[in-house]
Amino acid sequence: MRKPFVAGNWKMHKTAAEAVALVEELKPLLADTTQVEVAVCPPYTSLVAVQQALAGSSIGLGAQNVHWEASGAFTGEISAEMLLTSGCKYAIIGHSERRQYFADTDETVNRKLTAALGAGMVPIVCVGETLEQREAGQIEAVVLGQLNGALQGIQAKDASRIVLAYEPVWAIGTGKTATSAQAEEVHALIRGRLKALYGPEVADAIRLQYGGSVKPDNAAELFAQPNIDGGLIGGAALKAEDFAAIVQAAG
Ligand code: PEP
Q1: Catalytic residue among 67, 167, 184, 187
Q2: What domains sit in the chain, N to C, each tagged with a CATH number?
Q3: Model confidence over 208-238: pLDDT tens digits?
Q4: Cβ(237) – ligand 1 distance below 6 Å
Q5: 233, 239, 246, best to mutate for ligand 1 pocket (most atoms within 8 Å of CB)
Q6: Would you call 193 exposed, middle or buried from its count of C-beta atoms within 10 A (0-12, 13-18, 19+)?
Q7: What pLDDT digit, counting tens, does each position of 90-119 carry?
Q8: What is the atom index within ligand 1 of the atom nearest the CA of 233?
Q9: Would residue 13 show up in a list of annotated catalytic residues for this protein?
Q10: pTM for this one?
């Protein structure tokens, strides 16, 4: 049985003080949540403060990116070990905004994933097609292409630790959610590819999150699909009550 997993991607929002205030609001709302794994991914500048605020709670901490090298002359970058020692268990990798604005490619996603796994982190790897690609009938080619690229050289023993987030680019921050049927169709496709790569046992252990305008009123239907094991939440993760309601919908 896969434990549902809901993570909040706070993107470039919240100062450290605002991040702590949001976590303080969230903690009591999620105090009784045991059926769902929960994480928040604030900006780097808030990680340590949020780690301290989360002490004693079951909410995990994640980063929004990670570099593939352990250290070196990479101005502005952060390594997996730095994240781990700042309290991060999770790292989002290959978010479509990073692919679009910061030149993340399947190759760099693969290198980041390899580094995160090597450090013992739980990576959340994002894949998803643009509207243009969907309309051109390229969903399968794009999503499976990104998946194959990300997983190059990743062994079955490490693969079950990976979380994959299917995030159709046209649904991110737009208010346009994929229908539960559209989302499930792609999730089933991803599960099928994972089976082909790693066999049924590993494929069945990997959590597949859906992301793209998930809100309290559409979360339950999405999460009820057989291959949707929770969500990666952007905008709604910035409101404690909405995020808590989405977490509850996954339980
Ligand atoms: C995201 O950024 O990962 C995301 C899914 O955003 P939103 O929920 O705002 O669409």
Answers
A1: 167
A2: 5-177+200-209+225-250 (3.20.20.70)
A3: 999 999 999 999 999 999 999 999 999 999 9
A4: no
A5: 233
A6: middle
A7: 999 999 999 999 999 999 999 999 999 999
A8: 8
A9: no
A10: 0.98
